[in-house]
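Input sequence (233 aa), recorded before submission:
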Amino acid sequence: MYLLSLIIILSYIVGSIPTGLLVGRWLAGTDIRKHGSGNIGSTNVMRTLGWKLGLLVQAGDLIKGLIAVLLIARLHYGDFPFNNRTPFDDFTIVQIIAGIGAVLGHIFSVFLNFRGGKGINTAAGMLVGIAPIDISVALIVFAVVLFSTGYVSLGSLSAATAFPTTMFIRFNVFNVDIPSYHTLILFSIATTLLLFYAHRANIRRLLTGEENRFNKLKVLGRKVGSSVKMFMF
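Predicted structure, token format:
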């Protein structure tokens, strides 16, 4: 029990590291919370400080999830402190717990009075270590939606929905053998709901048409529109 508690605490602390705030202060000499939406996530950094720093923050937030499931989770050894009734092996359960700890840390950072980012990148890092095929499909969905609409938040929410959907289709339609599917699908749905909760303000702005958009990233829409015009004329 002591080791599991330590893993949760360490994962939460790693997830709490405010990558966007640190990058803004160290590399741009500014507090990202005073610009744009005030969020410390990669989207706001990219919008206000440029795509290079935005990608750096995105990578840093993703690495936090990877550190939790690939490194911190390995601190556990011996028997699991509870009766494991799931189809997962004990280590995978520890990975899931560590990953959730990191995501919660990112959303409710102990270093920022329990405020933080949306958790998408940290959750992606966690899922890369646990379910690489399904998260790869989700990332493709994110890219398609982003480059079609220019909305990062809509791409993130679409990817969050695509993850459990992909797992469900692979298992139930294509009969792919996914170890511990029934437990993993519930875990993925819970993660998706958590990310939707973190994006509740973005959802309201999307519904009212007030959400910020990266028009320069809306490349697929322009290409489709150009192709239709060429076909018509």
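Checked by second reader. The chain has one domain: 2-232.
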